[in-house]
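Hey,
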Amino acid sequence: GLCCPGRDPACLSAGRRPDGSTGPCYCDQACARTLDCCHDYAQACPVIPCVVSQWSAWSGCAEPCKTTYRIRTRHIIQEPRNGGEACPALEERAGCVEYWTRQGTECQESLIPALITTAGFGKARKKRAAADGNETAGYCVEFQLVAITPGCLHSHQSYTRWMHYLREGHTVCVECQHPALHSPGQHCHGDGTGGQKNQLLHWQAVGNHQCKGTWRRIRQLDTCSCPSVHSFLFI
């Protein structure tokens, strides 16, 4: 009936050991390493890992009209016992931007520098826009990456791995689509529209505030044909 966490010399019994010898034996978690468990330790004290729930839905952005974060959570269904695997993180954050205030009016702030994320996010966005009847033809802009902060390579969460494709000197393609497509000019903030030729423009990756840099606008493409790897999306 003994099952003790950690190393506990007081978690002692008398009986048979796995090698058949008799005498003092232990029922603490460390006995598997010290090879002095009681013979029935594995059956009486089975390893039980942590079990957590599925992730909740993502929350809304913490604050409207600015680059901030959203949260999703999960809870512990079963605590680990007898040396079982520890529980993983119960909260996860991701960068986001909302274009509407809590009162339902459109944000007036100019979101500069350009805020970008992986182009894969655009597939779900287009489906939502079509369902809402807001699907508007967008455009793409090609940029040459000039400078990138080291923080882009230090992103290890699953939702930031796309940042590893940002490399100095590479040409990238960034799509502007609803709802980042703003009226009345129908362009995305930070896309370089109206800027001088060869002007250095600033960008920042959503999801990791340490990943940012500069680029030069090459040209605008009214028909998007971006490659799958070096493609991004204005937020």
